[in-house]
Design brief:
Blueprint lengths: L6 E7 L3 H12 L4 E5 L11 H4 L4 E2 L3 H6 L1 E2 L6 H6 L2 H10 L4 E4 L3 E4 L5 H13 L3 E4 L5 E5 L2 E5 L6 E8 L14 H8 L8 E3 L3 E3 L3 H4 L4 E11 L2 E12 L3 E3 L1 H14 L5 E6 L6 H14 L5 H5 L7 H8 L13 H12 L1 E8 L7 E3 L20 E3 L7 E2 L4 H19 L7
Parallel strand pairs: 1-2, 1-10, 2-7, 10-19
Antiparallel strand pairs: 3-6, 4-20, 5-6, 8-9, 9-10, 11-18, 12-15, 12-17, 13-14, 13-16, 14-15, 16-17
The structure holds flavin-adenine dinucleotide.
Length: 423
């Protein structure tokens, strides 16, 4: 690789989804690019995604995509427009990876193997002429007369005209994302908004969840009670665990709960196990069932509404004898059953730690990044891509698409601001 005067056009720090795509895009636009990664391989985190199957994007519309990001999804409009979910699917299909769509529009490789995705990135990096420097951790970044110097503890510095910071968030540290990008950007005066776990399981105070460990419930709705305010979720799936609650729906609301837990010791939530039916209708239906099946044990009647294993635990929480015949259930007990099927209260005492969040909430403030290019508004020549940026997405393939889209946009922006660029 020829390096004019030893200075690369673009140095990308971090070879996850965002950094790899940024490097590929800039190199395809004829820039001389080096991709620096602290691990000896690229995409360690990608290999964990979707339980090793990699849910790489979603079929949702762009408007839906923007709604899936907090605090301000609108920030990604240009990135998602410039390199959309369809563009990403075309990119992988063009490289020979067949894709499939599963429930809730989740897109995965047909192989069910995340390695299909990392293999393609590796191949595209090679073919587009990106120089890779694996096993090298950047510890400092300095700007001297419009040239950036990337420093290492044990190796010579690397010089580049533009730098793309793609170091990821601060969770699953074993994959290499230990938050270095926040430190590097912070030294240049960037604001790093409060880092907390998102897409993280939640701990509950009582033993209800522990009694149901391993049980999943499909199609519930969660309400977060924030003083007088109620934050109501979409419908989704819950998994009961030995410490509390997990599953896609819980992971999706966990960022909001973790934010509230920063200022209080517990958060109240309620779970609606019958979100498709109004309370009055549910009470009517239960009354009819009780009247017509008075000899049936109440646990069996309730076991037709919630999973069988859950019914006795649910009734015991209401101090109702699960062995009782339905006909023996009085009006007050019937009312309590209906109330709690519609809003079973849980007290959330915390979340699992930041390292166990599938994504990090918080990061480089989006106010300091130009959304049309991903370039820093504070230090020209520095670009941010992927999870290092503050707004984070819900589960369903949105976060990887964000990494690929912002990476693509930054790679292109870097290239466009130099001379002699062709697409
Ligand atoms: C268990 C799990 C499952 C997930 N499943 C999904 C899913 O199915 N779908 C989805 O959309 N999202 C999923 N996510 C989230 C998604 O993986 C991330 O949001 C996404 O990978 C972020 O990509 P990134 O390129 O920004 O960062 P990362 O993938 O974290 O990559 C950052 C890279 O930078 C390197 N690096 C860091 N510091 C330095 C340094 N100083 N010098 C050199 N290199 C450095 C790291 O080693 C790392 O390789 C999941 C996350 C986890 C943890």
């Amino acid at each position: 690789m020829n390096k004019p005067s030893g200075i690369y056009d673009v140095a990308v720090i971090g070879a996850g989804a965002a950094g790899s795509m940024a490097a590929i895009r800039a190199a395809r636009l004829k820039k001389i690019v080096i991709l620096v990664e602290r691990n000896r391989v690229l995409g360690k985190k990608i290999l964990l995604t979707g339980n090793g199957r990699c849910n790489l994007t979603n079929t949702a519309s762009i408007e839906m995509f923007l709604k899936k990001f907090k605090p301000n999804g609108e920030f990604y409009r240009t990135a998602f427009s410039r390199f959309s979910n369809n563009d990403l699917m075309d990119f992988f299909r063009g490289c020979g990876v067949e894709l499939k769509v599963e429930e809730r529009g989740r897109v995965l490789p047909i192989t069910d193997k995340a390695a299909s995705v990392t293999d393609v990135l590796e191949k595209c990096l090679r073919e587009s002429g990106v120089e890779t420097a694996y096993g090298r951790r950047v510890i400092s970044l300095v700007k001297k007369e419009n040239i950036f110097e990337l420093g290492f503890t044990d190796r010579a510095a690397i010089y580049a005209k533009k730098v793309i910071i793609a170091t990821g968030g601060g969770s699953y540290k074993a994959t290499g994302s230990t938050g270095d990008g926040f430190v590097i950007a912070g030294r240049f005066g960037h604001t790093v908004t409060g880092l907390k776990p998102a897409l993280v399981p939640l701990k509950t105070r009582d033993s209800f969840a522990a009694c149901l460990q391993g049980l999943s419930f499909t199609g519930a709705r969660i309400t977060i009670h924030d003083g007088g305010k109620k934050n109501i979720s979409d419908c989704g799936d819950i998994l009961f665990t030995h410490f509390g609650l997990s599953g896609p729906l819980v992971l999706d609301i966990s960022g909001d709960v973790a934010a509230l837990l920063l200022t209080r010791s517990e958060v109240k939530i309620t779970i609606d196990f019958c979100p498709d039916i109004k309370r009055e209708e549910l009470e009517k239906e239960l009354t009819v069932a009780i009247d017509s099946r008075g000899n049936t044990r109440i646990k069996n009647l309730i076991g037709a509404i919630v999973p069988k294993r859950m019914a006795p635990v649910f009734l015991s929480r209401l101090n109702i004898d699960a062995q009782k015949k339905s006909g023996q259930i009085n009006k007050k007990e019937r009312s309590a059953i209906v109330d709690n099927l519609k809003a079973l209260p849980f007290t959330i005492s915390g979340s699992l730690p930041l390292d166990e969040g599938m994504v990090t909430a918080g990061g480089i403030s989006s106010k300091e990044i130009n959304p049309r290019t991903m370039e820093s508004k504070i230090i020209p020549g520095i670009f941010f891509v992927g999870e290092v940026i503050e707004p984070r997405g819900l589960s369903g393939g949105y976060n990887l698409q964000q990494a690929f889209s912002t990476g693509y946009l930054a790679g292109e922006s870097c290239a466009a601001s130099g001379a002699g660029v062709t697409d």
